[in-house]
Amino acid sequence: MLYFYLRREASGFRRSEKEQEQMTKLLAAGMGTGRHETLTLGVLEAAKQAERLVLQTGNVETAEYLSEIGLSFETLDALYDESEDFDDFNEKAAAFLLLKDAVFLTLGQPSDNEALRLAVEIDPSLELTVMGGLSVESEAAALAKMKMNAGMRLYDAEEFLNTRFQANDAILISAIDDAYTASEVILKLKRWYKPETEVAVINGSKCRYMPLEEAENAFSYGYNCCLAIDKKTLYDKECFSYEDLKQVLIMLRDDFDGCPWDREQTHESLRRYLIEEAFEASEAIDRDDMFALSDELGDVLLQIMFHAQIADEMQDFDEYDICTEICKKMMHRHPHIFLGSSGEGFAPENWEEIKKKEKNIHSLAEALEDIPKAMDVLLRAEKLITRSAKYGKEFAYLTEAFMTCKTEEEAGNMLMGAVYALIKNGFCAEASLASACGRYLESVKNEKNE
After folding, report:
1. For the segment 399-427, what is each residue's pLDDT rounded down to a tens digit?
2. Contact 87, 37 (CB under 8 A)
3. If we measure between CA atoms, which residue out of 53, 135, 148 comes closest to residue 102?
4. What is the pTM of this model?
5. Spatial contact of 72 and 15, defined as CB atoms under 8 Å apart
6. Of all helices (H) and strands (E), which one includes residue 55?
7. What domains lie within the chain, and their CATH numbers?
8. For residues 347 and 335, what is the distance between their CA atoms, to the nearest angstrom?
9. What angle in degrees, to the nearest 10, is found between the helix axes of 319-333 and 348-359?
10. Where are the alpha helices (DSSP H) in 314-373?
11. Measured in Å, how far apart are the chain's first and last C-alpha atoms?
12. HSE (CB half, 13 Å, CA atoms) of 59?
C-alpha cells in the first residue's frame, strides 16, 4: 500500500513544498456521543481555538451546535460518500487529516478512530495530541446500569458479527446502524441466549429493557444504537462453549457440592471410557449419522476435559497445555502453511520425517517401540508391518505360517501373515475383519429367518 502516495494524492489533495517541510500537528479530541451536552469544556475550547477544525461527521447534533456558536469546520462525510468501502474511506480520511495542522473531533474516543490510527501509521513524525471524550459505549453502559470495568466485552456490530463469540461475559454491541445488521446481530445472539433473556436496547440517551426475542424491531439504527446483555450463568445459556464445559467439570468435582462419582475418578479409572467413547464416535461415522456423531464427539470431548481437569487439580497440566502442544505440533508439521517454507504443498514424507525428529527416532527398533502397546492388537500388527516396510523390512517369510498351525506361536505368525497379505493388496486389516464380522452376523440372521 502506497501510504505516502495516499498522503499527497488521495482525494485530489496535494501539499505544497513548504507544507511538506513542516511537521504536521494534529489534536484529536472526542466530541462525545454526538449530542452537544456530551462535549467537554476542554474539547469545546480546543475547537474554538482551532485554525482548521475537522469533524468526523456533520450528521450529529454537536455539529449543529458548533455552527450555531459561529465555528466553521470541515467534515469527512464527502469522503465517506465517494469511498468504495471502509478501507478506502479510512485511507482517504487519513490523507485528508495529514494535509495540514488540524483539530480533529471524533465520535467517542479518538483511540477508536481507524482513520486517525492510519494517519499515525502513514506519518510516524506526526505530532499528535489526544483529548478524551465520552464514548457511545460508556454512555450506553451507564444507561444500562452495567459496569464497563467488570469484564464487559465491547464490540461494534460489524466486529461482533465476525468474531468467535462465546457468551462468557457481559457484552455491549454498538453501531447497529441498519435493519440487516440488527437482524444478523439478534440471530447470532439467539444461538447463545434463551429467547426470554433480558437485554438493554439503547438508542442515543434512551434505554429500554425487553426480552431478546423482541429486540430486533426496537432499534432506531445509527452509530449510537447499542444492545447490552449482562453476564449470565450456565443455567441462562442456550449454547455452551469449551469454557462452560470446564466450569461444569469444576462443579462436578467440587469437594463439597460435587458429584461423588465424578470426584473419585482418576486417569486410570477413566481410561476405558475414553476408548469406549472413541469407538462409539467411530460407529456414528460408519452409520453416517451426523446427529449421533455430534453427541458422541461430545462424549469424547468430555473425557479429554475430564483428564485435563484431574491433571489441573494435580498441577500436572491443564487444557491450555493440551491445546498449546497440539497447536505447536500442527504448526511445526505444516511449515508450508504456517512458516511459508519454500511454498510447497503437503508431502507425507516430510510429515513422517518431522515426526521422527520430534520423537528422536533414528532406527526401525525405535520406530516400532513408538507404537502404543495399548493399541488394539490387530491394528498394532498392521502398524508394525507398515512401519517396518518404510524401513525396507519385508515379511515374505510370514506366508509360510499358513502351511502349518499347531501352536499359539504358529497361530500368531499365521495371523501376522494374513495382516501382511491384506496390506500388500491395499486393504485395511481392521476394516476387513470388521466387514467379515458384519457379513457373518448377517448370515446368522438370514439363517434364523429361513
Report:
1. 555 556 778 887 788 888 888 888 888 88
2. no
3. 53
4. 0.70
5. no
6. strand 53-55
7. 3-134 (3.40.1010.10), 138-236 (3.30.950.10), 242-317 (1.10.287.1080), 364-449 (1.10.287.1080)
8. 11
9. 130
10. 319-333, 335-338, 348-359, 364-369
11. 78
12. 8
